[in-house]
What does this fold into?
Amino acid sequence: MKIDRRDFLSLGIGAAAGIGAGTALSPLPWKLIDDSSIWSQNWPWTPVPPDGAVSFKNSVCTLCPGGCGITVRKVEDRCIKIEGTKGNIVNNGGICILGLSGLQLLYGPTRVKAPMKKDGGRWKEISWDSAIDEIVKRLKNIRKEGKPESVACVSGTDQGTVAQLIGRFLTAYGSPNYIRTSSIADSYEIALKKLHGQFSSIGFDFENSDFVLSFGSGVADGWGSPVRMFKANSKWKDSKDKALYQIESRLSNTAAKADKWIAIIPGTEAILAMGIANVIIQKSLYKKKLIEKYSKGFNNFKALVLKEYSPEKVSKITGVKKSEIIAIAKKFAGASRPVAICGSGQGRTPGSIFEFMAVHALNALIGSVNNIGGVFSVPEPDYIKWTEAEKDDVAAKGIKTDRIDGAGKKYPDTRYLINRLIDSINSTGDSPVELLFVNGANPCYTMPDTENVIKAFKKIPYIVSFSSYFDETTEMADIILPNHTNLERLEDIPLAAGLIKPVVGLSMPVVEPECNTRHIGDVFIQMAKLMDGNIKASFPWNNYEECLKKTLGDKWDKLARDGYWVDENSRASRGIFDFTPLVKNNRNLVKPEGKSKLTLIPYDSMRLTVGYIGDPPFAMKTVEDTILKGNDVFVEINPKTAAGYNLSEGDKARLTTSKGKAKVRVHLYDGIRPGIVAMPRGLGHTEFDEYLAGKGENFNKLIGPVEDPVSGLDAAWGIQAEITKT
Amino acid sequence: MSTIDDKATEVPEDAAGESAETVPPEQEKEEVAEKKEINKGLVIFVFIAAFVASLIVGWILFPMVLYTQENQPIDFNHALHLEEVENSCESCHFFREDGSYAGVPKLAQCVDCHDEVMGDDLDELAFVENYVQKNIEVPWLIYSQQSDCVFFSHAAHVKAAKMDCVSCHGDIGESTSLKVYEKNIITGISRDIWGKNIGGIKLHSWDRMKMNDCAKCHKEETGNQGACFQCHK
It folds into this structure.
């Protein structure tokens, strides 16, 4: 039978019709459509939290020194949200963007997942036992050579059982070289020591202040304990009777939210403080009785201030109008609970002691020292009562050697001088540091003169990093013994939050360790047990948890329940206020290095972390396009200045200082004094991960430390710079 | 064909090699008609064959291919356990303090009794050795698991509407073993959601739990089918 084309078509149509009718009358197409619609909604990239029991766990955030109490919401074993703990003495339910993003640091890709050793330039995973053995072997060798003082530690803090365990290890080993990274904590400590004669930390009763005179402190930009400051700042806005005056050369967030912004020539804050003192003394607005009873050296101070710091003179130096100076002085002295603060930006660089003393003198003059709404000398929390570390002959000899950072010698009140550590290493042939422990610090990024710092770190023969992340300093290390992240760690956290009584927080593990990390406290206890007799004897605990619980004693219950403990019994020292050091060290203005026409200053923001923690992606996403666009960082320039350099908004330029150069783009900003270029800190990382590395430029590579004549700390607030359009 | 009469006197030599014989018109027509009939018949036959084949594919072959058969990790006996507990379904499938539903129980629930092997059953032995002693959660396959786009609140239905478990979940409590889990390879969820019957025909309320099934009961009980966002957040 022949089938021609027409037949073929007919058959084809018939078959198609049959299939069509049959299929339509079967469930196939309708079920497929329904199933496909569900399939198309099964987006694998949408994160869906697991189903399960919800629980809440409390801890203390340690991503910055603020010490906020946090509550982590979990579903089964997975953390899904961090919030502030209600009722916590520091933050009372509030939290900042960094704390909020903490889960990205816990679960993110930057983590060091196990002990690592540098092998041929690459990181190789090793076991904990072999890592600890290797370090112990080195330590024993250094000790045999009789140079225990060549072992040093750089750490972000010297408070708390972990820091004290490391310090104890170094002492029993024979090294005095425990070095804390610098910040305004150092400056305040030294200013208080000089003026009050005792070592103490600074505390403020901001919650009760009614007039705050801030010399560049980033109240809304992360100064002090950030969330506490935000809440206090809100209180100051509560009523018309309260005010914040911000003295700053740039319109920061703090200045924008303040009641008054006083645009000062940068670096002259101390002079302004003295000028205000002049007006207060001249017009007899100071608390005479208090000054007579509780101070000494006042007459010399009065004479100096009245002679050298008249409002006319001060106005010329600071750029603040004479009438303004007088008005500020009157308002400050006339308020019922005024307080003056300083330490620019987030307070990450120490600054000039002259400035700190001058500002603190203002507080003394109007009676806000150890008074409601004012400033307090707070003793350090005194709950770690261990017996002294046992020392053998090697240790006894080693501990007496001069500190490698020179602290305590030329500058007797300075306890730590990390800048000098760098110089010490670079200026000698062999590095005086043979083995360096690094914990809770990232000096290869956060310290000024990055090139110099890296040069020094390259010289150190053996660097042990305890970092949980691959940061810039860890990349220079020879071995990494990763600590648990803050959410996995049990630790006491003495709060440097600037509260008026010593407060200790408790960081509790919220999850089981995600990776093969180990608590640094356990590592030091284990190392001690493998070392010689006296070191081993100084570490009687079996593990860190035992050490912590024994140390805290009966405070443990309160800490475990509330997350913090306040030493209610501590009393602010009621020493005499001695004006003499201020008189002696006045006029020590720190000038920016260099000879160019422009001055480069840094600025801090809540959205960019400046400390040793790298900015998490959530926070990076909130950085405006006028600060970071793509991988380009913007610098702020006054339009008048920019015009002189033929720079328009968005232009690419090269910023050069005597320390380095950077590729930047221009953002025209009216809120900055002409002649000044401002650059944000916190960018320009080269390590961590692709979410942070390669974005912007590191401010610290453009500036070098300038030694403060009173403390030896880095008092550089800016540096001369040149900018050229590219 | 209509030109045959015209060419009656001619003897055409065409390529087909036909003889000079010519076919009378009537036979021609019949042949044509026959051919048409055969073709039509063939077409109809093909149509019917295709039709039936599609029906078979759609109703029988399709469900065989669409679902994969998976066994539960442990063959759990509901009826046996129901005898041992006091609160029926709620003893193991309960509400937590915050109102969320615990769903299929976790290991902690079972370990209360099954800390060690209690009986002679091989399945229990496997359970204790492979899961309890190793502290691994049993990866149960959940028949009633809806797709990701659906939000369902047990609290609203059990506590507020006071429904019983059987209306939606059937008599699983009386089963002595767990049935095979048939997984839809396209959606990833169980066959129980669309229903065992591929045509979506159901006898009991628990045979099927697609949106329309929920909507029907909602219409009966509350007067309307409910708003989209109530279940699709």
DSSP finds nine helices and two strands in chain B. The CA atoms of residues 4 and 22 of chain B lie 8 Å apart. The mean pLDDT of chain B is 85.
